[in-house]
Amino acid sequence: MRSWKTKSGYKIYQVSNLRGNSYLIYTDKGNLLIDTGLKKTFNKLKRNLELLNLNGIDYLILTHTHYDHCQNAAAIKQMYDCKIIMSIHESNFTIRGYTRLPDGTFFIPDIIVKMGRIIGRYKYGYSPFIADIVLDDEISLQDKGFNINIIETAGHSAGSVSVLVDNEIAVVGDAMIGLFKNSIFPPFSDDVNSMIRSWNKLLNTDCNVFLPGHGGPISRNLLAKEYSRYKSKLVPDKD
To answer: Which residue ranges form the domains of the chain, and what is each CATH number?
Structure first.
Protein backbone atom coordinates (compact mmCIF):
# COMPACT_ATOMS: atom_id res chain seq x y z
CA MET A 1 0.00 0.00 0.00
CA ARG A 2 1.20 3.50 -0.77
CA SER A 3 1.31 5.80 2.21
CA TRP A 4 1.96 9.40 3.19
CA LYS A 5 2.74 10.96 6.56
CA THR A 6 2.20 14.47 7.89
CA LYS A 7 4.66 16.28 10.14
CA SER A 8 2.56 15.63 13.22
CA GLY A 9 2.37 11.90 12.50
CA TYR A 10 -0.93 11.36 10.71
CA LYS A 11 -0.56 8.44 8.27
CA ILE A 12 -2.61 8.08 5.11
CA TYR A 13 -2.78 4.67 3.46
CA GLN A 14 -4.13 4.03 -0.03
CA VAL A 15 -6.23 0.97 0.81
CA SER A 16 -7.81 0.52 -2.62
CA ASN A 17 -6.92 1.69 -6.11
CA LEU A 18 -9.09 -0.47 -8.38
CA ARG A 19 -11.26 1.82 -10.52
CA GLY A 20 -11.13 4.32 -7.67
CA ASN A 21 -8.97 5.19 -4.67
CA SER A 22 -9.88 4.74 -1.02
CA TYR A 23 -7.72 6.19 1.73
CA LEU A 24 -7.40 5.33 5.42
CA ILE A 25 -6.28 8.09 7.79
CA TYR A 26 -4.53 6.47 10.75
CA THR A 27 -4.03 8.47 13.95
CA ASP A 28 -3.44 7.74 17.62
CA LYS A 29 -6.94 9.11 18.31
CA GLY A 30 -8.74 6.88 15.82
CA ASN A 31 -9.15 6.08 12.14
CA LEU A 32 -11.06 7.57 9.24
CA LEU A 33 -11.80 5.98 5.87
CA ILE A 34 -12.31 8.14 2.78
CA ASP A 35 -14.45 6.57 0.02
CA THR A 36 -15.10 2.85 -0.44
CA GLY A 37 -14.88 2.07 -4.16
CA LEU A 38 -16.88 -0.39 -6.25
CA LYS A 39 -18.71 -3.39 -4.82
CA LYS A 40 -16.44 -5.77 -6.74
CA THR A 41 -13.37 -4.30 -4.99
CA PHE A 42 -14.75 -4.91 -1.49
CA ASN A 43 -12.59 -7.96 -0.76
CA LYS A 44 -9.38 -6.06 -1.52
CA LEU A 45 -10.52 -3.10 0.56
CA LYS A 46 -11.43 -5.39 3.47
CA ARG A 47 -8.13 -7.28 3.23
CA ASN A 48 -6.04 -4.11 3.23
CA LEU A 49 -7.93 -2.70 6.20
CA GLU A 50 -7.34 -5.96 8.08
CA LEU A 51 -3.61 -5.80 7.26
CA LEU A 52 -3.41 -2.47 9.08
CA ASN A 53 -4.63 -4.22 12.25
CA LEU A 54 -7.00 -1.40 13.09
CA ASN A 55 -8.88 -1.06 16.35
CA GLY A 56 -11.80 0.14 14.29
CA ILE A 57 -12.95 2.91 11.97
CA ASP A 58 -14.58 5.93 13.58
CA TYR A 59 -15.71 7.82 10.49
CA LEU A 60 -16.34 7.12 6.83
CA ILE A 61 -16.04 10.32 4.79
CA LEU A 62 -17.47 10.31 1.27
CA THR A 63 -15.97 12.84 -1.12
CA HIS A 64 -19.18 12.38 -3.14
CA THR A 65 -21.73 9.67 -3.82
CA HIS A 66 -21.16 8.43 -7.36
CA TYR A 67 -21.31 4.64 -7.41
CA ASP A 68 -17.55 4.13 -7.79
CA HIS A 69 -16.94 5.92 -4.49
CA CYS A 70 -19.70 4.55 -2.29
CA GLN A 71 -20.89 1.10 -3.40
CA ASN A 72 -19.33 -0.40 -0.25
CA ALA A 73 -20.46 2.34 2.14
CA ALA A 74 -23.38 0.39 3.64
CA ALA A 75 -21.20 -2.70 4.14
CA ILE A 76 -18.39 -0.69 5.79
CA LYS A 77 -20.85 1.00 8.12
CA GLN A 78 -22.29 -2.36 9.13
CA MET A 79 -18.83 -3.88 9.63
CA TYR A 80 -17.28 -1.07 11.68
CA ASP A 81 -20.33 0.78 13.05
CA CYS A 82 -18.70 4.02 11.87
CA LYS A 83 -20.39 7.36 11.31
CA ILE A 84 -20.80 8.48 7.70
CA ILE A 85 -19.92 12.09 6.87
CA MET A 86 -20.90 13.62 3.54
CA SER A 87 -22.36 16.73 1.91
CA ILE A 88 -25.94 17.69 2.62
CA HIS A 89 -26.34 18.24 -1.13
CA GLU A 90 -26.13 14.50 -1.82
CA SER A 91 -27.71 13.03 1.32
CA ASN A 92 -31.08 12.49 -0.38
CA PHE A 93 -29.47 10.38 -3.11
CA THR A 94 -28.04 7.83 -0.69
CA ILE A 95 -31.44 7.18 0.89
CA ARG A 96 -32.63 5.73 -2.41
CA GLY A 97 -29.28 4.24 -3.44
CA TYR A 98 -28.64 6.06 -6.69
CA THR A 99 -26.75 9.22 -7.64
CA ARG A 100 -27.09 10.59 -11.16
CA LEU A 101 -23.95 10.25 -13.26
CA PRO A 102 -22.09 13.54 -13.88
CA ASP A 103 -21.97 15.34 -17.20
CA GLY A 104 -19.11 14.69 -19.61
CA THR A 105 -16.64 17.54 -20.09
CA PHE A 106 -16.05 16.72 -23.76
CA PHE A 107 -17.60 14.62 -26.52
CA ILE A 108 -16.61 11.01 -25.73
CA PRO A 109 -17.31 11.14 -21.95
CA ASP A 110 -20.60 12.87 -22.73
CA ILE A 111 -21.65 9.95 -24.95
CA ILE A 112 -20.62 7.48 -22.22
CA VAL A 113 -22.70 9.35 -19.65
CA LYS A 114 -25.81 9.46 -21.85
CA MET A 115 -25.59 5.70 -22.37
CA GLY A 116 -24.96 5.15 -18.67
CA ARG A 117 -28.01 7.15 -17.65
CA ILE A 118 -30.17 4.84 -19.74
CA ILE A 119 -28.90 1.87 -17.71
CA GLY A 120 -29.18 3.96 -14.55
CA ARG A 121 -29.68 2.37 -11.16
CA TYR A 122 -29.30 -1.21 -12.44
CA LYS A 123 -25.55 -0.81 -12.89
CA TYR A 124 -24.73 2.43 -11.14
CA GLY A 125 -26.76 2.09 -7.96
CA TYR A 126 -25.64 1.02 -4.49
CA SER A 127 -27.11 -0.26 -1.23
CA PRO A 128 -28.97 2.67 0.39
CA PHE A 129 -27.59 4.28 3.53
CA ILE A 130 -28.19 7.38 5.65
CA ALA A 131 -25.53 9.95 6.54
CA ASP A 132 -24.86 10.48 10.23
CA ILE A 133 -23.23 13.90 9.78
CA VAL A 134 -23.86 16.24 6.85
CA LEU A 135 -21.92 19.35 6.00
CA ASP A 136 -22.88 22.49 4.18
CA ASP A 137 -19.75 24.48 3.27
CA GLU A 138 -17.24 23.20 5.87
CA ILE A 139 -16.89 21.09 8.98
CA SER A 140 -14.00 20.65 11.40
CA LEU A 141 -13.26 17.46 13.31
CA GLN A 142 -11.09 19.28 15.84
CA ASP A 143 -13.70 18.71 18.54
CA LYS A 144 -13.49 14.97 17.79
CA GLY A 145 -9.73 15.02 18.37
CA PHE A 146 -8.65 15.09 14.71
CA ASN A 147 -6.77 17.89 12.95
CA ILE A 148 -8.97 17.39 9.92
CA ASN A 149 -11.23 19.79 8.06
CA ILE A 150 -13.73 18.86 5.38
CA ILE A 151 -14.56 21.57 2.85
CA GLU A 152 -16.93 21.80 -0.07
CA THR A 153 -15.18 21.59 -3.44
CA ALA A 154 -18.18 21.49 -5.74
CA GLY A 155 -17.93 21.06 -9.48
CA HIS A 156 -17.57 17.39 -10.27
CA SER A 157 -20.85 17.10 -8.37
CA ALA A 158 -22.84 19.56 -6.28
CA GLY A 159 -21.84 17.79 -3.08
CA SER A 160 -18.18 17.09 -3.75
CA VAL A 161 -15.94 17.66 -0.72
CA SER A 162 -12.23 17.50 0.06
CA VAL A 163 -10.57 16.36 3.27
CA LEU A 164 -7.67 18.43 4.61
CA VAL A 165 -5.35 16.36 6.79
CA ASP A 166 -3.15 18.46 9.09
CA ASN A 167 -3.56 21.17 6.44
CA GLU A 168 -0.71 19.41 4.60
CA ILE A 169 -2.39 16.74 2.47
CA ALA A 170 -5.80 17.01 0.82
CA VAL A 171 -7.89 14.05 -0.32
CA VAL A 172 -9.93 15.58 -3.13
CA GLY A 173 -12.12 12.89 -4.68
CA ASP A 174 -12.88 13.72 -8.31
CA ALA A 175 -12.26 17.46 -8.05
CA MET A 176 -9.19 16.58 -10.13
CA ILE A 177 -7.63 13.40 -11.50
CA GLY A 178 -4.08 12.06 -11.37
CA LEU A 179 -4.12 9.88 -14.46
CA PHE A 180 -2.08 12.15 -16.72
CA LYS A 181 1.37 13.66 -16.26
CA ASN A 182 0.51 17.27 -17.09
CA SER A 183 -3.25 17.51 -16.65
CA ILE A 184 -5.69 17.23 -13.75
CA PHE A 185 -8.84 18.06 -15.73
CA PRO A 186 -11.53 15.40 -15.14
CA PRO A 187 -13.50 13.89 -18.04
CA PHE A 188 -16.69 14.29 -16.00
CA SER A 189 -18.05 17.32 -14.16
CA ASP A 190 -21.51 18.76 -13.57
CA ASP A 191 -20.21 22.33 -13.26
CA VAL A 192 -16.76 23.10 -14.69
CA ASN A 193 -16.97 26.69 -13.48
CA SER A 194 -17.41 25.58 -9.86
CA MET A 195 -14.71 22.94 -10.25
CA ILE A 196 -12.10 25.49 -11.32
CA ARG A 197 -13.08 27.73 -8.42
CA SER A 198 -12.66 24.75 -6.13
CA TRP A 199 -9.09 24.34 -7.41
CA ASN A 200 -8.41 27.90 -6.26
CA LYS A 201 -10.04 27.13 -2.92
CA LEU A 202 -7.63 24.22 -2.47
CA LEU A 203 -4.68 26.42 -3.46
CA ASN A 204 -5.69 28.79 -0.68
CA THR A 205 -4.96 26.04 1.86
CA ASP A 206 -1.43 25.10 2.94
CA CYS A 207 -1.69 21.63 1.39
CA ASN A 208 1.14 20.56 -0.90
CA VAL A 209 -0.08 17.10 -1.91
CA PHE A 210 -3.50 16.35 -3.37
CA LEU A 211 -4.73 12.75 -3.43
CA PRO A 212 -7.41 12.21 -6.09
CA GLY A 213 -10.11 9.58 -6.45
CA HIS A 214 -8.43 8.25 -9.58
CA GLY A 215 -4.71 8.08 -10.33
CA GLY A 216 -1.67 9.16 -8.38
CA PRO A 217 -0.87 12.15 -6.15
CA ILE A 218 -0.93 15.66 -7.61
CA SER A 219 1.60 18.32 -6.65
CA ARG A 220 0.76 21.86 -5.65
CA ASN A 221 2.81 23.10 -8.61
CA LEU A 222 0.71 21.15 -11.10
CA LEU A 223 -2.54 22.29 -9.48
CA ALA A 224 -1.37 25.92 -9.63
CA LYS A 225 -0.34 25.50 -13.27
CA GLU A 226 -3.71 24.00 -14.22
CA TYR A 227 -5.65 26.66 -12.34
CA SER A 228 -3.67 29.38 -14.11
CA ARG A 229 -4.42 27.68 -17.42
CA TYR A 230 -8.17 27.34 -16.91
CA LYS A 231 -9.13 30.37 -14.79
CA SER A 232 -9.40 32.55 -17.89
CA LYS A 233 -12.22 30.27 -19.04
CA LEU A 234 -14.33 30.97 -15.98
CA VAL A 235 -17.77 32.27 -16.84
CA PRO A 236 -18.66 35.30 -14.66
CA ASP A 237 -21.46 34.67 -12.19
CA LYS A 238 -24.79 36.23 -13.06
CA ASP A 239 -26.00 39.02 -10.81
So the answer is: 10-233 (3.60.15.10)
